[in-house]
Structure formats: structure tokens, C-alpha cells
Amino acid sequence: MTKKGMFSLTAILLMFLTACSGQSTTTSTTTAPNASPASTQAANATPSSVEKKLPRVAFVYIGVPGDGGWTYEHDQGRLMLEKELGIKATTVENIPEGPDAERVFEELAQKNDIIFGTSFGYMDPMYNVAQKHPKVTFLHATGYKTLPNLGTYMGREYQSAYLVGMAAGKMTKNNHLGYVGAFPIPEVIYTINAFTLGAQSVNPDIDVSVVWSNTWFDPATEKQAAISLLDKGVDVLAAYQDSPASIQAAAERKVWGIGNDSDMGRFAPETYISNPKWNWGPYYVQTVKSVMDGTWKSSAYFGSMKEGITDIAPLGKNVPVDVKVLVEKKKQDILNGTFDVFQGPIVDQDGKTRFEQGKKMTDEEILGTTWFVKGIKGVIPK
Predict the structure, then answer these.
(1) pLDDT tens readout for residues 320-344
(2) Which residues contact 188 (CB under 8 A, 6 or more apart)?
(3) What is the pTM of this model?
């Protein structure tokens, strides 16, 4: 299990997490520019203009862009950054969460101005290195520790999960849905809750069975977890991992599948519904621009669907038109602010009312979620 999976739920209340990660051991790809920030001019600078410097930027990935999910979408954001700002970034791949990550961040801090770490388990390594390099800007995906030179960033993926849950609730025939969770951390828990609430909003008889893979990218393990749910008779299967293994297992049984992170429709085109999808590019561009113009300040960014950081992938070709229309209408409600996913009444799986009618969960309450909503079958390991 990665370091990310070993955090206790009670120790990570009020935090930004993420999820998404993998388990691998090799390093690296793109080479960093040799020029110092003071010697590199922006491509559009002219002799008469104020000279602008291009910062040296690095990305650390838990997996590889070829995962088709989490790392792939971060890498697409990196490509957008390079295209728009003329920066050639360094990328280091397959860095496990733990001591080796701290070594990598320390090495990158010697020759870069901005460093993005794209997995929750990088939090302590980044925090330790950032303290020693106050002139380097560090950005950590999904964590909760900040410093004057270390910020965090995350998106409201639960909004997308609710919409996909609505589609699942309309597509099921037997009202039994399955969900392969990655690690029992708040980010995954509140996403499963949102998925369930979305399904129940169109079909109150829904239940959702949850099993844990304790992986971010391990296709063999994730497929076995999926099969355990398929054997129970679920007729819609969702998953919160970087690989398409679960939806591929579902397709083999001719069961509807829902992926994660990136458009996974190509892996199971006949039985694919949709999935939450990330779009990191605009955040990366704006963040680097703010560092360049001196306006960047450390913060805990929690972007919404309206800001474009999260969305849903196009619904599959075999999803009925009326379902697509229903989902699109609710999406517009989220975008214009007339609908909030986590607004009471919300009851947990033990029958306790967590939030009364009309009461909205705060960001801190969402990010500290350690309980399942009513209708979920499964336990959250302590």
C-alpha cells in the first residue's frame, strides 16, 4: 500500500486530498533547460519591451501519462502550459510516495523555480523540501499542508460524480450499483457519496456496494475487485482508479461501466456511461503566470466545475438521449449555482441525519468526510 493509503481518516480532517496515484519505481523523462531564470527571455520579448523571464518548471508524477487517467490528465495540463507560455518543463515519472520522493524534490529544487507534485502522498516530502528552499514555489495536488512558498490545489470532482451517478441511476435495471474505491480517504469517500446521492435523486431504491482495491494503478488487483462486485450481481460498476480495468471487467459481463479521471470510453465503448474528468491546464497556466508577474500567494485552491477544472466525459454512445438531457440540465444547475450536491437532508448509512433540510456542507466538512451516506453497502476501514 502507498503512503497515501496509510493515512488514518481521523488525522486528515479538513484537508485537500487527491487522489490519484500509482505504484511504480522508475524515474524520469523530459530534461530541464540549462539556462537560469535570469538568462531566459520570453519568446515574444523585444529590445524595447520589458524583459520577461521564463521560469524553470518541473512536474513530478506518481505514474506515467500512458495510464490513461490521473497522470495523463496532469500531463495534458503540462502540455497546455508549454504551448501557451513557451516553457519546456521537466517531468519526472513513476516516483513512489515516500523517501525517494523527497530526494527527487530536493534535486529538482536545485535547478527549478516552480515545482508541481501531483499526488497526495508527496505532501510531507514537498513540505520538508519547501522549508529548505524558500525561493522556490511548490504546488501540491490534493494535500493540506501549506507554507508561504507551498500551495495546494484540488477540484470539486464530487460535482461530476453526482452527474455520473444520475446517469447510473437511470441505466440500472436491478437497482444494485457497485463501486471500486481506491483508498478510504475523504476525497474518495465524498466522491462515492456524491455518486450515490446522484443515483438516488433519480431512483430512490438504489443501493451501492463498495469494495476497496487499496491501489491507484494496479490493473490486475482492480480487475479482481471489480469481479467481486460483478459476482454479486451489480449491473452498473463505477471505479476510482487510474486504470480502465474495472470498466473492462464490466464490459466482459455486458455490464455498464463508469471510469475515472479521463475519458475512458474507448476502453469499453459499448457499455460505457461516462466518468468524472479533470482539466488541469488552465490552472497550470494561470498559476505559472501569477508566479511570473509576482502576484502568486500560497493558498488552498478548490476549483469547481464552473471554473473548468472538472467536468464529465461525454456520455457513451449507447446512453439514451433522455438520460443525456437529464444530466445536462442538472449540470447547468450546478454551473449557474442553483444546485449544491451536498445540501441536506443528508442521512448516513447508520440512519443518522448528518445535515438537516437546506443546510449545506462547508468545504471543511466535505474535505473531512469519513462516513458513507444511506444506501451504501460497505465499510470504511479505520
Answers:
(1) 999 999 999 999 999 999 999 999 9
(2) 19, 181, 182, 240
(3) 0.84
